[in-house]
Write a structure and sequence with these properties.
By secondary structure, the protein is of the alpha+beta class. The chain has helices at 6-18, 28-36, 42-54, 73-87, 110-122, 140-150, 169-176, 179-192, 202-220, 236-263; strands spanning 25-27, 58-63, 66-71, 98-103, 126-129, 132-135, 156-161. Strand 2 (58-63) and strand 3 form a beta hairpin.
Length: 265
């Protein structure tokens, strides 16, 4: 697994600790200390905080001797969507319908186009071609929210229904997602996160759970969570999800205890 980047650290921390425990903001000093425990330097962390604040993902909080950061409303919504994807049950059923999302965003708005593409991928949709995404799940509400956030409503069309061609849904899956590559990545995840001994300290439990969740989150957002009829037999991603949930539960109490001790929450 590649080294942890400050930006990714902050998104995982806010998504797996700050927001779930009900905090509105976190002191900069606590963020620096937790980042340091994961080999992220003070300067790198502060630079990431400044950039994320400037981009509108975080907002600075100051007053009465407090200096920290909190989530913006838009980021909070994205965090909640991420939490649902990470911890929700596998969507096994399928009614045979596909959600198709097409868009044609002008070149002068390519930044909005890139944000939309990232948002659709985040939701698990796969690309069938230039400006055309697909999902076997009815995600039209989630997609509409993403479209509105990106302010590209007039450039997007959605359709939910059955496909006339190709008749074999496996051909759609093969075009939209690289399951062979994804399977190899899940296999490497399972090998790295085989059940281990109990951590020696709460700090070590925090570190282990953080890295576990961070890696799983990045892999999960490349996984469309396809329903059973569209997956290969004995799909390895199912075992990886079960392993993640079991290890996450095993480490959660001690990891959260360390986080709360550091933040003083």
């Amino acid at each position: 697994m590649a080294g942890l980047r400050p930006r990714s650290f902050l998104f995982t921390l806010f998504g797996d600790y700050v927001h779930p425990v009900g905090e509105d903001s976190v002191r900069v000093g606590a963020l620096v200390r937790l980042a340091g425990e994961l080999a992220i330097s003070d300067n790198a962390l502060r630079s990431a905080l400044t950039r994320l604040s400037r981009e509108g993902w975080l907002q600075a909080e100051r007053g009465g001797g407090f200096r920290g950061y909190s989530l913006t409303p838009e980021t909070r919504q994205l965090i909640e969507e991420g939490i649902r994807r990470i911890y929700a049950s596998h969507r096994a059923g399928w009614d045979g319908r596909w959600l198709l999302v097409s868009y044609s965003v002008p070149e002068q708005s390519r930044e909005l186009r890139d944000r939309l593409r990232q948002s659709l991928s985040f939701l698990g949709l796969g690309a069938l071609g230039n400006g055309l995404f697909v999902s076997p799940h009815d995600l039209h509400r989630e997609v509409l929210e993403a479209v509105r956030r990106c302010q590209v409503e007039e450039h997007v069309t959605m359709h939910l229904g059955r496909l006339t061609w190709p008749e074999d849904p496996a051909q759609v899956v093969a075009r939209a997602w690289d399951l062979e590559r994804l399977s190899s990545r899940w296999a490497a995840f399972l090998e790295r996160w085989s059940p281990g001994p109990e951590p020696a300290s709460d700090q070590e439990a925090f570190r282990c759970r953080f890295l576990l969740t961070h890696e799983f989150r990045h892999l999960l957002f490349d996984d469309p969570d396809l329903p059973e009829p569209l997956l290969p037999a004995d799909w390895i991603g199912t075992r990886a999800r079960e392993r993640f949930l079991a290890e996450n539960r095993r480490l959660r109490h001690r990891a959260e205890r360390h986080y709360l001790e550091v933040t003083g929450a």
